[in-house]
Amino acid sequence: xxxxxxxxxxxxxxxxxxxxxxxxxxxxxxxxxxxxxxxxxxxxxxxxxxxxxxxxxxxxxxxxxxxxxxxxxxxxxxxxxxxxxxxxxxxxxxxxxxxxxxxxxxxxxxxxxxxxxxxxxxxxxxxxxxxxxxxxxxxxxxxxxxxxxxxxxxxxxxxxxxxxxxxxxxxxxxxxxxxxxxxxxxxxxxxxxxxxxxxxxxxxxxxxxxxxxxxxxxxxxxxxxxxxxxxxxxxxxxxxxxxxxxxxxxxx
Length: 252
Hints:
CATH class: Alpha Beta
CATH superfamily: Alpha/Beta hydrolase fold, catalytic domain
Strand order of the largest sheet: 1-2-4-3-5-6-7-8
Radius of gyration: 17 Å
Helix content: 25-40%
Largest sheet: 8 strands, mixed
Shape: globular
Number of helices: 9
Structural class: alpha/beta
């Protein structure tokens, strides 16, 4: 079933289900399809919302801070309170910045392959951006099993990096994420936090998860074997089982 994109003012999002709000934040090359299995699993018990982050529409203020402000305005506009906030990759970074300034609004925080401490990216430039095979191999590195990088997914990434304006935005956001290191601030986050990490993540390697666990005082770390940077895509059943157990412990 196709996800229905809703519009409210400047916000575009997908939303289904009833119950406590579970907001999913995608990463730099994220798409709605990244959360398809997660969305379908949790909409039976939660109000699941995926805001479409304006990665390419931020103007001069292109950075993770601006994306966090966008999420703040979205949550305020929807009048959500005590949200479960999940982010993958750059989305996790955005979720961390939002939480740092709005802890009273966040019931739980879930991070998977999150930036904010250290990350290996696609690179600061795209010298081979017209080379489909180069992009395919880079996309495959996101996963433990390269077969997860379907032609459809590679085509999406290829289309982004071959659009000059979008490529410039991607580079700006990637540089912003590297500059915006949160190691000195994470101890301030007291929100219950669930870290779900692929043991074979090459973009935010296992040492990053261990540092998050050390710095976030109220966190739990769950490892997923034979899994890369996007566990919710690569092993959705395992991911949903871990997350459901964590959320059950923190429901009203």
